Amino acid sequence: MKVKGDKIQLIHSEVKSLVMAPLPNAELVQNSLQLYRYLLRCCKQLPEENIRQHYRHAVRQSFKVHADEDNPERIQQIIKRAIEDADWVMNKYKKQK
After folding, report:
1. Do residues 22 and 79 make contact, with C-beta atoms less than 8 angstroms apart?
2. DSSP assignment of 26-81, as one string?
3. Is the four-CA dihedral 22, 24, 26, 31 of positive or negative sign?
4. Which of 10, 54, 64, 74 ranks highest by number of CB atoms within 10 Å?
């Protein structure tokens, strides 16, 4: 029975890797500056200028809010969540094209 569970887990991780990252190299984001640049590159791929401006503003505001964060675990949580949110946004607008 363990083999079946391992197969399911392997398939799940393969599917997840196909749909998780809105841009290549999301897994390389390790610090806040890299995240900031990554998210701004995601914004450049959005379809309309007003949408790009909205999300650029949201990225900048989030960085201002979290600028004083110094807990490494919390920073990693924020990075992970920001990449997941970027993935959701990119998929949302990709489907509308």
Report:
1. no
2. GGG--SHHHHHHHHHHHHHTSSSHHHHHHHHHHHHHHHHHTTT---HHHHHHHHHH
3. negative
4. 54
Residues 6+ apart with CB under 8 A from 25: 38
Maximum C-alpha span of the chain:
52
Contact between residue 21 and residue 82 where contact means Cβ atoms under 8 Å apart = no
Matching residue, tokens 């590159």: 41
Which CA distances in Å does 15 have to 26, 56, 92? 16, 29, 18
